[in-house]
Amino acid sequence: MEYLLEHLEELRAKTPESEPRLWESVNNAWKKMKKYYALTDKSHQIYAAATLLNPTERMSFFRLKWVDELESWQQVMEDTCREVWQLDYSQFARKEEQQKKLSDYEEWRRRARKKLTGGDEFTQYIMGIDGEGTATELTDNFNPIAWWSTATYPSMRQWAFDTLSCPATSCECERAFSSTKKLITPERNKLQDDTIEALECLKAWFDRGLIEREENVQ
Q1: What are the pLDDT digits (tens) for 126-149?
Q2: Mutual orientation of helices 73-88 and 154-164 as an angle, nearest 10°?
Q3: DSSP at 156
Q4: Distance separating alpha carbons of residues 4 and 30, to the nearest angstrom
Q5: 82, 108, 131, 163: which sits with the fewest CB atoms below 10 Å from its CB?
Q6: Burial of 57 (0-12, 13-18, 19+ CB in 10 A)
Q7: DSSP string for 173-209
Q8: What are 149-206's pLDDT values in tens digits?
């Protein structure tokens, strides 16, 4: 959303008022985006959390983009997300494991790392391995779900799966409704709920290449 808003603001500044229809269209789009962007201030636990839970963004995104008049919202967002984590997910955090006897040097390093990351999983994750909020490097084939599958933050992992599985738009849901409407015809109006669900799941999986049609089925 920040990208779209920034793009519209740049376009608004470049569009000459001598082209009234074009300028009005761009300005209306900017106003609408500005309106919905303001509403995200009330949903940090979803909108901001989805960005925070992206390993390639973490806190570095907000420190880069939420500047000037938005800078004060960084702490508000972090406090809101921390509260969600503490209430709903902190119980999944890994327990302190029994450690083997460490040398003085190893114990010193362990204390230093713990001090750097603040102790709990929430802080360890959002601040990154350097304690400065540095994100994981984004590569062409980076998959956040695969990253979280092996991440060493069990409570944050569960939160990430719950949040990142939310669809960004309702388009896919609307397509499912439209598809189901075509499935339930006047001649097939007594299909049971579980049958409809199974058929729609199979269709979706087949369309996405998750399953293949069996050949020579008798």
Answers
A1: 877 555 556 778 888 888 888 998
A2: 110
A3: H
A4: 9
A5: 108
A6: buried
A7: HHHHHHHHHHHS-GGGTT--HHHHHHHHHHHHHHHTT
A8: 888 888 899 999 999 888 777 888 888 888 888 888 888 888 899 999 999 999 888 8
Cα 1 versus chain centre, distance = 12
> Tokens standing for 55?
């390993």
Token pair, residue 200, equals: 């729609």
Domain boundaries, the chain: 1-42, 44-95+102-164, 172-207
How many residues are listed for the chain in this entry? 218
Q: Where are the alpha helices (DSSP H) in 54-167?
A: 58-65, 73-88, 104-117, 121-127, 144-149, 154-164
